[in-house]
């Protein structure tokens, strides 16, 4: 898993997350990957209020998942764009210059999942891969 974490005021962070989601959509198109970026919830809430936490995530657009299709009709989550609001700013007593608790966003990618979904969709024959991949320096001369 690779994560990029953004810290700061609410509005610029939500704008950065929106740009990241748009870039992800372009990436999926350019690499001819069947999938989508959609609202989601974390499956690891194990608490008496788990249902309310799941509902909050879905209704507040705090989590967007990058989900790619697999040949068997299933899906695999390969990344996410999460907005934590001011949770960590309050927890660690960290304020931003514009006032108030720091907000945070993380963009995460499961690299092995990306590779798995790509190979499942496009196969292992490099000649059949999308141009953007075949023309990458890493695959020249193969």
Task: State the domain count.
Answer: 1
Low-confidence stretches: 50-60
Helical content band = 25-40%
Per the principal axes of the C-alpha atoms, what is the gross shape?
Answer: elongated
Radius of gyration: 18 Å
Kindly estimate the percentage of residues that lie in beta strands according to DSSP: 25-35%
CATH class: Alpha Beta
Judged by helices, strands and strand pairing, the structural class is alpha+beta
Tally of DSSP helical segments = 5
Describe the structure using short key phrases.
142 residues, 5 helices, 5 strands
How would you describe the overall organization of this protein?
This protein is about 35% helix and about 25% strand. It has a single domain (about 1-130), classed as Bira Bifunctional Protein, Domain 2 (BirA Bifunctional Protein, domain 2, 2-Layer Sandwich). Strands 1-5-4-3-2 form a 5-stranded antiparallel sheet. Residues about 50-60 have low confidence and may be disordered. With about 140 residues, it is α+β, with helices and mostly antiparallel strands. The protein has 5 helices and 5 strands.
In short:
By secondary structure, the protein is of the alpha+beta class. It has helices at 10-30, 50-60, 87-91, 111-122, 131-134, and strands at residues 2-8, 35-39, 63-69, 75-85, 103-109. A five-stranded antiparallel beta sheet has the order 1-5-4-3-2.
Secondary structure: elements and pairs:
Layout: E1 2-8, H1 10-30, E2 35-39, H2 50-60, E3 63-69, E4 75-85, H3 87-91, E5 103-109, H4 111-122, H5 131-134
Antiparallel strand pairs: 1-5, 2-3, 3-4, 4-5
């Amino acid at each position: 898993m690779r994560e990029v974490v953004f810290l700061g005021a609410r509005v610029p962070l939500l704008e950065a997350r929106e740009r990241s989601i748009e870039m992800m959509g372009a990436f999926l198109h350019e690499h001819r990957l069947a999938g989508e970026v959609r609202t989601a919830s974390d499956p690891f809430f194990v608490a008496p209020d788990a249902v309310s936490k799941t509902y909050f995530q879905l209704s507040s657009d705090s989590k967007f998942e990058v989900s790619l299709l697999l040949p068997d009709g299933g899906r695999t989550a390969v990344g996410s764009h999460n907005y934590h609001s001011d949770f960590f700013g309050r927890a660690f007593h960290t304020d931003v210059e514009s006032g108030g608790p720091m907000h945070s966003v993380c963009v995460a990618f499961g690299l092995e999942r990306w590779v798995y979904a790509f190979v499942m969709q496009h196969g292992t024959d490099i000649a059949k891969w999308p141009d953007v991949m075949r023309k990458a320096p890493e695959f020249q001369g193969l």
